[in-house]
Design brief:
With 751 residues, the chain is mainly beta. The protein is built from ten helices and 44 strands. The strands form twelve sheets. It has a seven-stranded mixed sheet. The longest helix is centred in the last third of the chain and has 18 residues. The radius of gyration is 34 Å and the shape is elongated.
Length: 751
């Protein structure tokens, strides 16, 4: 029996011809002494059929061609293999071999025709005629062709959860009468276990289970086969799988789908630590956002690009609270001024001066070091921990909780060092904005090595004991996050701030600190305590808006309680082992936040729709470049939260591969009542101040685009906050009155 594989089909070129067949017949002469034994069998292949003609040669010779008739009314784009096929008259096909074929008496022909759209009805009488190069008939005859029986393969699992044990049930319909010798069933990728079945023997090979009856079984077309496979241990990865099932010899073949969807991975409980006592000299309550932003602002915080240079600085804490002292380390060699600016609205100037000290002496610090090992692995960590402390800065009652940029300048060069000041009084605010400092550090190539680049393969441990190379020392704050701070404070919202490090340390307090948390544009690197705290907060009713994409995507581990260093496992399986999903589909971002990372995208147009996200915005409004940085979408093979709604959609272009990718902004309500929004683009913050990263493939956002994104963010705030975040009646876009240099920003690699 001749089995024609897909690979064999691909080896033949020039076979496809478009035909529309309506009627036809073949004149057949009497049979010779050797019976031609013509048969024709149709097997369903989707919406069309493969019709295979078989016949015995009754005379020897060199084959010229074969003529076959097909049922009147057949349609389709019909192809074959090992030769060419064309229509010679209505209802008659001519197949000519691609090379010389010499046959002897008794030779068995087997010619398949693919893509035949059979008409309704049947059975039909069809003919077969093989002619030699001399014109002699080598074989001829007729056969009865019946409509194919669909294999109708169905595959189910008793426990369809990735990573768990299950019983798989394969069922399919026999499409041809014959003697069954085996059934071959494709197993889910990565499945293991000591598998068994019933009423026969079971073996496995190359990802398939092969069942053989104790003795050959006679089966008729239309009979239903059902084979259970016990003891299958599924891989921790699932999805919507297409699995093949076939019965030999050529009695049925088809595929069925099996959905293996992992629910959200369980997280360990996060303890709720008590708030520390308020320190002497620190207030028990802080001024409102409105009162703070009524104070005089300044544009002097801006560092012009002409002052970019060798001066660098960093702080010994990423966040602090009233009563703390923060060390500043500077390399310059000249006296510097050190000025701390609280970032906000401040009449559109963007910052207020809080503290300064001039004439601070500095040294040229030692060059950073790169190296280190752990568990036999090269860490390639770049560190400036050996630098001497230039200045200790007291965080007093004058430092209103918020985001700060400490500007260090020697008159020629200048740089920022970022700091977040927490409100640790125990006051619960309407909104908490998180600063993504672990992600800033992952992309930080200052000194030569980031997670992604340097010393050939990038680092396996990173430290905050060095300046940031991006954002003039601000990390990704200025390129991606300042706009959100500017917007929230321009609206006078009851907002407070903390960092990724604080989510790791104080995550159990999140429900006591705020009713809603906003994640910034690029909040990718999460430790287990961070992820567990965010998950636990949702179960306790805290609303979450991820105003970005690619959130909670890579897994890190802080090395000690100082949280100055964190490790990332790039050794087990390279970049794959750094991803949360490497632990299994239940650890993907989508089960937690609603959508999953797709790729880096340097700028595509968003077209507004009619969901609540676009209330007050005409449907079809174009926002050029808004789908930018990195993008997410709802993967069909991953867990989808009940009630998940895609509130915006679009198409991005993946930076490296050039392939198109869907983009989905999502929203769902958790069983606790918490609302979770996933924005699926980096661009929310930068559009709010009309200053997006310089290396994105987008123009400077127009004022109209800024207004659209401002209205979108207002709608997000209204929906996600469930009425607890009060926006002013005028939700127009605020203007940043100072010119800030555009910053380039690194993005993740494409998958």
């Amino acid at each position: 029996m001749n089995i024609i594989t897909n690979a064999a089909r691909r080896r033949v070129s020039g076979l496809a011809v478009a035909v529309l067949l309506v009627s036809g017949s073949l004149a057949v002469t009497p049979a010779s002494a050797v019976a031609a034994n013509v048969t024709a069998v149709a097997v369903a292949t989707g919406s069309t059929a493969t019709v295979t003609y078989r016949a015995t040669a009754t005379r020897a010779g060199r084959l010229r061609d074969i003529l076959v008739s097909i049922p009147p009314g057949s349609t389709g784009r019909i192809t074959s293999v090992n030769g060419t096929v064309r229509t010679v008259s209505p209802g008659v096909l001519r197949w000519a071999p691609a090379k010389v074929v010499t046959v002897g008496v008794g030779f068995r022909f087997a010619i398949p025709f693919y893509g035949v759209g059979l008409p309704s009805g049947g059975p039909w009488s069809v003919g077969f005629k093989a002619t030699g190069t001399t014109g002699a008939l080598l074989s001829y005859g007729t056969a009865v062709l019946s409509r194919p029986v669909s294999a109708n393969v169905r595959i189910t699992a008793s426990n369809p959860i990735p990573g768990q044990q299950t019983v798989l049930y394969y069922a399919g319909t026999v499409t041809s009468t014959g003697v069954l010798t085996s059934v071959r069933m494709q197993l889910p990728a990565g499945a293991t276990g000591r598998v068994t079945s019933v009423n026969g023997t079971l073996s496995t090979s190359n990802g398939y289970a092969i069942w053989q009856p104790r003795a050959p079984l006679s089966v008729r077309a239309g009979a239903r086969l059902s084979i259970p496979i016990y003891g299958v241990l599924l891989s921790r990865y699932g999805g919507i799988l297409s699995l093949a099932m076939s019965a030999s010899p050529l009695l049925m073949s088809g595929t069925g789908t099996l959905a293996l969807i992992a629910p959200p991975a369980p997280m360990p409980p996060v303890p709720v630590a008590a708030f520390a006592p308020i320190r002497t000299g620190c207030p028990s309550a802080w001024p409102s956002t409105v009162a703070e932003n009524a104070k005089p602002g300044t544009g002097q915080w801006v560092i012009p690009s002409t002052m970019d240079g060798p001066l660098s600085a960093y702080l010994t804490k990423v966040s602090a609270t009233c009563g703390d002292t923060v060390g500043l380390k500077v390399t310059s060699g000249k006296p510097v001024s050190v000025v701390a600016y609280r970032m906000g609205y401040y009449q559109g100037l963007g910052a207020r001066e809080i503290w300064r000290q001039d004439g601070v002496p500095t040294v040229v610090q030692p060059a950073p070091t790169t190296g280190g090992t752990a568990d036999g692995h090269p860490l390639r960590m770049t560190s400036a921990a050996s630098w001497s402390t230039t200045l200790n800065i007291p965080v007093t009652k004058d430092w209103i909780p918020g985001t700060y940029l400490v500007k260090v300048s020697d008159g020629t060069y200048a740089s920022y060092a970022p700091l977040t000041v927490r409100d640790d009084t125990g006051t619960k605010h309407a909104l908490l904005i998180q600063q993504a400092n672990t992600t800033w550090e992952a992309y930080n190539s200052w000194g030569g090595v980031s997670f992604y680049s340097g010393v050939d393969t990038g680092s396996g441990r990173l430290t905050f004991d060095r300046p940031y190379g991006e954002g003039q020392g601000s990390g990704q704050f200025l390129p991606l996050e300042q706009g959100l701070v500017f917007w929230a404070e321009s609206k006078g919202l009851d907002v407070t701030y903390w960092t990724d490090n604080d989510l790791d340390q104080f995550g159990g307090q999140l429900p006591e600190r705020a009713g809603t948390i906003y994640l910034p544009g690029h909040d990718e690197y999460y430790s287990l305590p961070m992820r567990a705290a965010l998950s636990q907060a949702i179960t306790k009713g805290v609303n979450v808006a991820n105003l970005g994409a690619n959130a909670a995507y890579r897994r890190i581990t802080f090395t000690d309680s100082t949280r100055r260093y964190w490790d990332i496992d790039r050794y087990t399986a390279g970049y794959d082992s750094t991803i949360w999903r490497y632990l299994g589909d239940g650890y993907a971002s989508q089960p937690l936040l609603g959508a999953e990372y797709a790729c880096a995208d340097l700028g595509n147009t968003l077209s507004t729709g009619s969901s609540w996200l676009f209330r007050g915005i005409p449907a079809g409004t174009a926002v050029p470049g808004f789908l930018a940085g990195e993008i997410d979408y709802v993967w069909p093979g991953l867990y989808r939260q009940p009630g998940l709604d895609i509130v915006a959609g679009g198409t991005g272009t993946c930076r490296t591969s050039g392939r198109a990718s869907p983009v989905h902004a999502t929203a769902f309500t958790a069983p606790s009542g918490a609302r979770v929004f996933n924005g699926s683009s980096f661009a929310y913050g930068c559009f709010l101040v009309r200053r997006c990263p310089a290396n994105w493939n987008i123009p400077t956002p127009a004022a109209a685009s800024q207004q659209v994104v401002t209205l979108m963010l207002g709608n997000i705030t209204d929906w996600v906050g469930r009425g607890t975040i009060q926006l002013p009646t005028d939700t127009g876009a605020a203007a940043l009155r100072v010119g800030v240099p555009k910053q380039a920003i690194a993005t993740d690699k494409d998958d």
